[in-house]
């Protein structure tokens, strides 16, 4: 394997760090209190206390769901919560572990709110969840340089042209890769699935940053399959 790392080993893709695991639960906040019997300032105080949030709304101006009511740096058990945000039509939880954890925390908050304050919430009430997963990882192959031969040829030609223009060696390489949807095809945009070289690291280190609108485990699985597909492309014919 070469050098030993203290991150999770996933076949060949070596997870360096989960930077963000965000889940968005789409539910209209008014539906959680149909007759307006819930005193929002009281709930905010209790949420901050129960989940040990270090920053939370303290003024009336900060209790505006249209701008997002934000709680920062909390925890429940051994799960750290980076952020919890209440909007008019959705709830957001961010961790740095896994979107599964974020979703469980969101549902736990609502169940607790129903038991403690009488929120009108029942499991399954949230019909739609969305995800954002950001992570860094290492690969044992140069993913971007091996993904597309014409792209490599373009980088080579650009390197030669720029080296001549600047009268010094300039080397260009494929720097990022992304797949996304047509933003004109739906009302609200969804983030692309992207892979780029990690900032502040040399391309030769094969360390990458990736963002995807997917659960963390699915994100990792797709990266693993992508790397495996590149390896198959470059295997000698007799070994396929």
Structure characterization notes:
It is a single chain. By secondary structure, this protein is of the alpha+beta class. The protein folds into two domains: 9-17 and 134-239, no CATH class; 28-125, no CATH class. The chain has helices at 40-50, 99-117, 143-147, 149-166, 216-233, and strands at residues 9-10, 13-26, 69-76, 79-86, 90-95, 128-138, 176-179, 193-197, 207-212. The longest helix has 19 residues, at 99-117. The radius of gyration is 23 Å and the shape is elongated.
Would you kindly provide a brief summary of this structure?
The chain is an alpha+beta fold and 240 residues long. The protein has helices at 40-50, 99-117, 143-147, 149-166, 216-233; strands spanning 9-10, 13-26, 69-76, 79-86, 90-95, 128-138, 176-179, 193-197, 207-212.
Total domain count: 2
Summarize the helix and strand pattern as letters.
EEHEEEHEHHEEEH
Radius of gyration: 23 Å
| Averaged pLDDT | 90
| Tally of separate helices | 5
**β-sheet strand percentage:** 25-35%
Provide the low-confidence segments as ranges: 1-11
Q: Using DSSP, what is the number of strands? A: 9
Helix content: 25-40%
Please state the structural category: alpha+beta
Shape: elongated
Q: Which sheet architecture does the biggest sheet show?
A: 9 strands, antiparallel
N- and C-termini, Cα separation: 23 Å
């Amino acid at each position: 394997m070469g050098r030993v790392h203290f991150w999770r080993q996933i076949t060949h893709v070596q997870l360096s760090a989960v930077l963000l695991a965000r889940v968005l639960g789409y539910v209209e906040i008014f539906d959680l209190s149909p007759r307006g019997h819930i005193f929002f300032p009281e709930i905010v105080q209790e949420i901050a206390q129960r989940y040990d949030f270090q920053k939370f709304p303290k003024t009336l101006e900060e209790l505006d769901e249209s701008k997002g009511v934000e709680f920062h740096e909390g925890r429940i058990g051994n799960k750290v919560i980076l952020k919890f945000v209440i909007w008019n039509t959705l709830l957001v939880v961010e961790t740095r572990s896994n979107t599964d954890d974020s979703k469980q925390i969101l549902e736990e908050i609502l169940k607790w709110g129903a038991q403690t304050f009488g929120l009108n919430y029942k499991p399954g009430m949230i019909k739609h969840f969305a995800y954002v997963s950001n992570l860094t990882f290492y690969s044992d192959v140069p993913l971007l340089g091996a993904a597309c031969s014409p792209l490599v040829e373009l980088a080579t030609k650009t390197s030669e042209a720029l080296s001549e223009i600047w009268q010094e060696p300039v080397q260009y390489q494929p720097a990022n890769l992304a797949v996304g949807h047509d933003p004109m095809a739906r009302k609200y945009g969804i983030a692309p699935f992207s892979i780029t070289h990690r900032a502040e690291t040399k391309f030769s280190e094969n360390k990458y940053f990736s963002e995807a609108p997917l659960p963390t485990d699915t994100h990792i699985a797709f990266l693993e399959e992508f790397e495996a597909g590149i390896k198959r492309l470059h295997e000698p014919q007799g070994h396929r």
